[in-house]
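pasting for ref
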Amino acid sequence: MSRSESLAPRRAELIALCGSQRRDLAITVDDVGRSLWVVDAAVVASRRAAAHPALLVGFVVVAAVVLRPSRIVRLLTWGLPAVLSGRRVATLWLHRRHHGREPLDN
């Protein structure tokens, strides 16, 4: 038996393993792509809200009319820290996206 004949089963095994790893990687990349799409959509929405403060004020007024003040207070105590954290994450993400992996100045 020649060396190439003895290595043929191992080669076939490695090729099958590569195919399996490619499929796993494609699934992972697809999941990451979906996650980044959500982040991009949130960044776009926050930029639009910041560009139209009158619309944001109108939304707050409508929310105050539709919701009772006690619910608004509960939403703010939960939502405000979440929004601030989200803004910070978006800022860090955008900074890294546009400037590579440089450290932040602040």
